[in-house]
Design a protein that fits this description.
- It is built from eleven helices and 17 strands.
- By secondary structure, it is α+β, with helices and mostly antiparallel strands.
- The strands form three sheets. An eight-stranded mixed beta sheet has the order 4-10-9-8-5-6-7-11, sandwiched between helices. The chain has a five-stranded mixed β-barrel with strand order 13-14-15-16-17. Strands 1-3-2 form a three-stranded antiparallel beta sheet.
- Helix 3 (about 40-55) crosses helix 4 (about 60-65), helix 4 packs across helix 5 and helix 8 packs parallel to helix 9.
């Protein structure tokens, strides 16, 4: 049965300082590296290996051979004793330190590593949690907490419809989202709210006023969201419940319906300027919004995008061009020819082509990633 290098060194207990061969030096360096990976400091490794070389040795000898201050050697040896690698006899003069056999010294470390390995293996083998979760929630506080949590998770786009009263409960989360560059499209369920209301300060890129009494709706990055009856967010007791969901096949359908039906019914009251360019997008509508606002401000906009012809299985490839026109229904005046159409017209080297988002169908190309840049 093979033994560990540390055990060999411990058993040899050679009292002579014999020259080491190249192979032995390599072994020594590997031992040092491994011990440092386990959290031992360089000086602790120096002290420990001197102790192992002797098996039983005075602390003053360890200090001298390892070139460590005597006071610091006491501290290091005390720590090594706590780690179970040595025993220190300081009830005698001079103080003596003894190395424990490696099979005993590293028993606890091996046990700890096995426990960690088992825990990681269990986590690795655990099946992925389903991504099609629908949850019914009755508690107003739980619903508001879930809305705020989802808003804080948003990376590129939030589409939200709610009452002014409910907006006040999540306005700080929406402000944080706007500050980190998330496109926020907000429809307020009221006929009386005005842009002078302080709750609108910095909460959205586009604000529209809709009809009071509509359900609260929210979509985050087309992957998760919520649909909540108006009464479920009121203070009084209600038996109505809201639904929160994480469902990447349902969310795009819901937000498409929202932008194609509810959004046009409302009146635009606030539009912020587009975010500074260059900016990279994996969602299409934020790119359309920024391209529209920059074009209207008289800026030339260049685009680098990963695209492929629609309704094909071709590989996506990178192409670059200039955005020359936009069709969109996000801000007034809208230019889309149907519901929620959002299209960029890009001049490539072979002519102007229409580009839509992922799974686009009326356009020439679908895009999964793009970068917009000022080309003034």
């Amino acid at each position: 049965m093979s033994t560990s290098p540390l055990w060999d060194r411990y058993n040899s207990q050679c009292p002579f300082n014999l020259p080491m061969s190249r192979e032995e030096r390599m072994e020594d360096g590997e031992i040092r590296t491994r011990l440092e990976q386990f959290g031992f400091s360089e000086k602790a490794v120096d002290a420990y290996l001197r102790i192992v070389d002797h098996g039983r040795v005075k602390l003053s000898t360890v200090a001298e051979e390892a070139d460590i201050a005597t006071s610091y050697v006491y501290e290091l040896c005390s720590q090594l004793e706590e780690d179970g690698l040595v025993t220190v006899d300081d009830h005698r003069t001079p103080a003596i330190v003894t190395a424990k056999p490696p099979s005993t010294a590293f028993e606890q470390l091996i046990s700890d590593l096995e426990s960690v390995s088992e825990a990681v293996a269990t986590r690795y083998e655990r099946p992925e949690e389903p991504r099609g979760e629908f949850t019914v929630v009755k508690s107003r506080q739980t619903l508001l907490g879930r809305l705020e949590e989802m808003i804080d998770d948003a990376e590129e786009e939030i589409a939200i419809q709610m009452s002014p009263e409910s907006l006040r409960d999540v306005q700080h989360a929406l402000q944080r989202a706007v500050d980190r560059g998330v496109l926020v499209l907000l429809s307020l369920e009221t006929e009386r709210e005005t842009v002078s209301d302080p709750t609108l300060e910095g909460v959205a890129d586009v604000v529209r006023i809709g009809v009071a009494g509509m359900p609260t709706f929210m979509s985050i990055d087309q992957r998760e969201g919520a649909v909540i009856p108006p009464s479920a967010l009121e203070w009084g007791h209600t038996d109505e419940a809201g639904i929160t969901f994480v469902q990447e096949k349902v969310a795009p359908v819901l937000v498409g319906s929202f932008l194609g039906n509810y959004w046009p019914m409302s009146e635009e009251v606030l539009v912020r300027r587009g975010r500074p360019l260059p900016r990279t997008y994996t969602h299409f509508r934020p790119a359309v919004f920024d391209a529209t606002t920059h074009l209207r401000a008289g800026h030339d906009v260049a685009a680098r995008m990963r695209i492929r012809p629609v309704r094909t299985a071709e590989k996506f490839r990178e192409r670059s061009g200039t955005v020359v026109d936009v069709r969109q229904n996000l801000i007034e005046p809208r230019s889309s020819s149907f519901g929620f159409e959002n299209t960029l017209f890009v001049k490539f080297e072979d002519g102007v082509r229409s580009v839509g988002g992922k799974d686009a169908f009326p356009e020439d190309y679908e895009a999964i990633r793009m970068t917009l840049m000022r080309d003034d």
